[in-house]
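Handout, section B. The chain below has 249 residues.
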Amino acid sequence: MFTWNGTQLGVKTDKDAEYIYVDLKGDRGDNFEYIWNGTSLGVKTDKDLNFVYVNLKGDKGSSSFEVWQESNPGGTLVQYNAFIKGETGYSPIKGTDYFDGDSFMFTWQETSLGIKTDKDLNYTFTELKGDKGDKGDSFEFNWIGTQLGVKTDKDTAYAYVDLKGDKGDVGDMPTAAIDTYLGNFYSSSIIALHRRVLDQGATFARKLRFAQEVEDETPNASLILAPVAVTRQVNSTQSYLKMEQVISQ
């Protein structure tokens, strides 16, 4: 009987109780090194000083024409070319060696595709419409102020998003509104004067000062010369200018 233990071979007979092992691992061999010099291969071990070269280039072989001439003495290159040239191949004939396939034609009847060859009388139809898909979820909407709530018919609560944007900048007072406020304090001549000042692109406060400087253009000079306080008022729906006459004590 035999057994292995690494590199050791164990042997025993059926009468022996234990194997007798012999280590078959040999001593470490020399390392080989290789180098090429043209077609010569140099070999040496790590113990050698110099490479031993062997030229591996073989003798030049005979050409196929020279090999042919050995069996055809006196043969020419023209004869050799005729010899190696193959015979003309056979061209297959349509209708004998091969045939055209059938031509296919197509037509639609709504969602059914019909196919037939040019030899068939009728189309063979196949319904390509698939089964109706499952019903999707239904969406529901609800508003709370500026918040929009959305949920499907499977959800129990709405998901809300506030769609109210940031508060915008206060705009300029419209001309007609300024005329109305001026009319509460000044005569029609001052309103006309305000219109001319407006055309000059002046601010509202500048318009009031300009009106006060032209006492000779209004019959209500005493009111024009009185101080006027102008304030901007803002509430939840609008922005406006408020003018109040300041009465000296």
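Note. The longest strand covers residues 228-234. Compare this with the example in section A.
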